[in-house]
Design brief:
single chain, 478 residues, alpha+beta, Immunoglobulin-like, 28% strand, globular, binds zinc ion
């Protein structure tokens, strides 16, 4: 997510997103809360999400089919779903569950299984729901659904739920350790609009009633990455020949009202950024799907393979689009490497923010890196350690006065720079690759997404260097 320090730069996006509406429960508005024993007793194999978007009512109808495998005997399923939604039907393995067999008082939904599931057995939970979802009060920092109007008059709709969780969109387990292995997404919207989404396009169907259904499938999505974006888009695309031998499709969905020269200039940055990240960190993690960017009414969000871009093609002294670069860094630091708990979120935002000075260096040389590092020193809070080593929700990290707030960005970047200077490039980048990919020699196809904590990063650094760097983590992070 774009950092709080950048809020001042986005007054326009804020105003456009100022919305009210029904409020979700305090439970639903938190994300990354501890899982229940029932949630820990299942593996989340697949979610199949069908969403019909009703722009005039600012509402949606949804069906979520969630497939689980039991890891231990379990007699109830527990998922999160915003209680603002009306649930019209609940089925387990095709069998309707009576109304007294499930409850969803605060957004943590409990479904009694018809029989106890033994370890290794699978089950399929189907929930039909709908209504007016929570509108984002100030996307992306106070998230939910954004119901905007494009300059050409059509509905322009987006979601941003990093601080609030996937349960504002579909039934899920709202915890960063509960990534489904696969999500199939079917978005039905008015036929004059497009619905680009995560992963690989699976075709679209004209329903003959003025609506079209867009079908997508994505592997291992980050839990807050699955999103809905609908608008009057045009698409530009191209192929990127990776240094790792694969070809990565690049897609940009932009408003049809955009100036062609703006679109072309930004799209020309896609291969440059791919080049930088693949050379500096390693293979683009989702080359088997796409590099995707979609223009949104809010500033930005790291939606996996469909980054939200709302920086309005602004140019500044950096010579590149910082918002695009920041959100794209999250494909490595958030979507490939996901924090164990929100307490470790500097692994997303600090490592991600350090990619900006490194990109300035890669583009223009050492002095430009130093300038970006100097800029990042402005406005440090230093009110709490970056990492508390206790379980936290995303909201506590960002907004609680005892949390690190914006320090997970710039201070995280500066600490990362200090670590790089301390270790030297060879050990630093080797440790970084092991952290991100789980191995020092990543190639397309030989790694899967990783979930890691700060102490695990410390262990990786110790192991790569053969020396004890606990003092570094104690001094700078804890
Ligand atoms: Zn971010």
């Amino acid at each position: 997510m774009a950092g709080a320090a950048f809020i001042a730069n986005s007054a326009m996006a804020q105003d456009r997103n100022a919305q009210g509406g029904p409020e979700s429960s305090a439970f639903t508005l938190q994300t990354d809360q501890p899982r229940t024993p029932e949630q820990e007793a299942v593996r989340f194999d697949k979610a199949d999400i069908s969403l019909t978007i009703l722009p005039e009512q600012k509402a949606m109808r949804g069906v979520g089919v969630l497939d689980f495998t039991a890891l231990a005997p379990v007699d109830r399923l527990v998922v999160e779903l915003d209680a603002l939604f009306d649930v019209s039907d609940v089925q387990v393995d095709g069998q309707t569950i009576a109304r007294d067999g499930w409850s969803n008082p605060e957004g943590r939904m409990t479904i009694q299984l018809p029989r106890t599931l033994q370890a290794g057995e699978t089950t399929s939970l189907r929930i039909a729901y709908g209504g007016q979802p929570r509108t984002a009060r100030r996307a992306p920092w106070n998230g939910g659904w954004v119901w905007a109007t494009a300059p050409t008059g059509e509905p322009w709709i987006a979601t941003a739920v990093q601080l609030d969780g996937c349960d504002l969109i579909f039934p899920c387990i709202d915890n960063s350790n509960a990534e489904p292995r696969q999500v199939d997404i079917h978005i039905t919207a008015p036929s004059n609009l497009s619905a680009p989404a995560n992963g690989t396009f699976q075709g679209k169907t004209d329903n003959g009633d003025g609506t079209t259904t867009w079908n997508w499938t994505v592997r291992h999505p980050n839990i807050y990455a699955v999103n809905v974006t609908v608008g009057p888009y045009e698409e530009v695309s191209g192929d990127y020949q990776s240094r790792f031998g694969n070809v990565i499709p690049m897609h940009f969905w932009h408003l049809k009202s955009d100036k062609p020269e703006d679109v072309q200039r930004l799209f020309a940055e896609f291969p440059q950024m791919l080049d930088f990240f693949e050379q500096t960190v390693g293979p683009y993690p989702f080359g088997y799907e796409k590099m995707g960017v979609v223009e949104t009414p809010h500033l930005g969000m790291e939606h996996q393979t469909i980054n939200a871009y709302g920086n309005a093609f602004k140019q500044d002294e950096r010579g590149y689009d910082w918002l695009l670069q920041h959100e794209f860094s999250h494909e490595w630091f958030a979507n490939q490497l996901t924090n164990w708990n929100a307490d470790d979120m500097w692994l997303h935002e600090g490592l991600g923010s350090y990619m900006q000075p490194l990109y300035a260096r890669w583009l223009r040389g050492e002095r430009y890196m130093q300038r970006e590092l100097a800029n990042q020193r402005e406005g440090l809070l230093n009110r709490a350690p970056i990492v508390s080593r206790t379980s936290k929700t995303v909201d506590q990290v960002y907004n609680d006065p005892t949390g690190p707030g914006g320090d997970i960005y710039s201070k995280g970047s500066l600490v990362t720079h200090t670590l790089r200077m301390t270790l030297g490039d060879a050990d630093f980048f080797r440790a970084l690759r092991i952290l991100v990919y789980g191995r020092p020699d990543p190639e397309p196809g030989n790694f899967t997404p990783q979930t890691r904590s700060t102490p695990e990063f410390n262990e990786i650094v110790n192991s790569v260097t053969g020396r004890n760097y606990d003092w570094f983590f104690n001094a700078y992070l804890y």
